[in-house]
C-alpha cells in the first residue's frame, strides 16, 4: 500500500514538473502564467518596500516608482504572450499592438491639425477673442497646430475676472464641443439684474428706478466705450441678428417669496462685472430711499 501511494505521488510530481517545463501544453501554460503573476506581485511588493525605506525626494521617487511599476507590467504582459503564443506570433502581436497605439496617436495628431486649419482659415475665433468651450471661459492668447491657450476667467469667481491661470485645450474640441464666442459678431452682450420684492412693495416705482439707472448707463455707451461714433454704428448693425434691443428692458415675474423685478441691458463684453456692480449700487441706494420698496429677503430677516 505504501509503495503504491509513493508511486502515485511520484507520478503526480513528475506530471506537474512536466506541465511546468512543457509550456506547449494547456496546463503548463496555466502554471507558468500563475508563476509569472506571483513573481510580478513579489517584485511589486519588493519595489514598494525599497522605495518606502529609501525615499528622500517623494515627488521624484514616486515618478521613478511609477515608471518601474509600468515597466514590470509591460514585461509581465510580454512574458504571458510568449507563453501562450509561439515566438513569431508573439512578435507579430506586439508589433500589431504598437501599430494600434501609434495609429491612435496619429489619429489625434491629424484631428488636432485639422482643427487648427479650421480655426485659422474659418476664423472660429482669433487671438484675444473671449470664448467659452467645454465649460472653460477665457480669452484666447495663443493658437498652435496642436492646441490653443486661453487666459482663464471666472471659474471659482462669480465675476468674469482673470484667475491667473492659463488653460491649454486641444484643437479637436472645435469638432466635439460648442464654441461660445463673445466677440465674433459684436462686442456687446446682454446682462440682467433682478431683485425679489415683497408683494406690498411699489413695483412700478422699483421698475422705474431700475430702468432709469440702466438708461443713463446705456446713453453714455457711445462716449465711454468707443472713440468714434462710426464704431457704434457698425456694432449696432449686428444687433438684429440676436433680436437684441440696445435700450434697457424691464420685466416682472412672480415667485413664492415675492415679486421678481428685472432689467435687461446691453454692456461691452469686458465690462460686465464692473458695470453690474456700478448699476446695482445705484439701484440699491435708490431703493433704500423709498419706503414703499422692500426687498423680500429683508422682510424674511425681520420675521425671523
From TrEMBL:
Which SUPFAM superfamilies does the annotation name? Answer: Sm-like ribonucleoproteins (SSF50182)
Organism equals Enterococcus canis
For this UniProt record, give its keywords in alphabetical order, as a comma-separated list.
Membrane, Transmembrane, Transmembrane helix
One Gene Ontology cellular component term attached to this UniProt record is: membrane
Q: Where are the transmembrane segments?
A: 26-43, 63-85, 91-120
Domain Mechanosensitive ion channel MscS, first and last residues per copy: 108-183
| Localization of this protein | Membrane
The cross-references to InterPro entries, in alphabetical order and at most eight, read:
LSM_dom_sf, MscS_archaea/bacteria_type, MscS_beta-dom_sf, MscS_channel_2nd
Q: Which Pfam families match?
A: MS_channel_2nd
Major subcellular location class? membrane
**Is the keyword Transmembrane helix in the record?**
yes
Protein name per Swiss-Prot or TrEMBL: Mechanosensitive ion channel MscS domain-containing protein
Alphabetically, the GO molecular function entries are: mechanosensitive monoatomic ion channel activity
Amino acid at each position: 500500500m505504501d509503495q503504491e501511494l509513493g508511486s502515485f505521488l511520484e507520478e503526480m510530481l513528475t506530471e506537474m514538473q512536466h506541465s511546468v517545463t512543457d509550456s506547449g501544453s494547456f496546463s503548463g501554460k496555466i502554471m507558468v502564467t500563475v508563476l509569472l503573476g506571483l513573481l510580478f506581485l513579489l517584485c511589486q511588493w519588493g519595489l514598494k518596500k525599497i522605495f518606502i525605506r529609501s525615499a528622500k525626494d517623494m515627488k521624484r521617487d514616486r515618478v521613478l516608482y511609477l515608471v518601474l511599476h509600468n515597466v514590470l507590467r509591460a514585461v509581465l504582459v510580454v512574458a504571458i504572450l510568449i507563453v501562450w503564443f509561439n515566438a513569431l506570433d508573439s512578435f507579430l502581436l506586439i508589433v500589431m499592438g504598437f501599430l494600434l497605439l501609434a495609429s491612435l496617436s496619429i489619429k489625434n495628431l491629424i484631428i488636432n491639425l485639422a482643427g487648427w486649419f479650421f480655426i485659422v482659415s474659418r476664423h472660429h475665433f482669433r487671438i484675444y477673442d473671449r470664448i467659452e468651450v467645454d465649460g472653460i471661459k477665457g480669452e484666447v492668447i495663443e493658437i498652435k497646430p496642436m492646441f490653443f491657450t486661453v487666459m482663464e476667467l471666472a471659474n471659482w469667481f462669480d465675476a468674469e475676472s482673470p484667475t491667473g491661470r492659463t488653460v491649454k485645450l486641444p484643437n479637436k474640441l472645435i469638432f466635439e464641443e460648442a464654441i461660445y464666442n463673445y466677440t465674433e459678431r459684436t462686442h456687446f452682450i446682454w446682462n440682467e439684474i433682478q431683485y425679489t420684492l415683497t408683494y406690498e412693495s411699489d413695483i412700478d416705482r422699483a421698475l422705474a428706478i431700475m430702468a432709469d439707472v440702466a438708461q443713463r448707463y446705456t446713453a453714455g455707451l457711445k462716449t465711454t466705450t468707443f472713440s468714434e461714433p462710426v464704431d457704434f454704428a457698425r456694432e449696432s448693425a449686428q444687433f438684429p441678428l440676436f433680436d437684441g434691443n440696445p435700450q434697457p428692458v424691464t420685466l416682472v415675474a412672480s415667485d413664492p417669496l415675492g415679486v421678481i423685478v428685472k432689467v435687461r441691458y446691453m454692456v461691452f463684453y469686458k465690462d460686465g462685472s464692473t458695470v453690474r456692480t456700478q448699476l446695482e449700487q445705484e439701484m440699491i441706494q435708490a431703493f433704500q430711499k423709498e419706503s414703499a420698496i422692500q426687498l423680500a429677503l429683508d422682510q424674511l430677516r425681520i420675521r425671523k
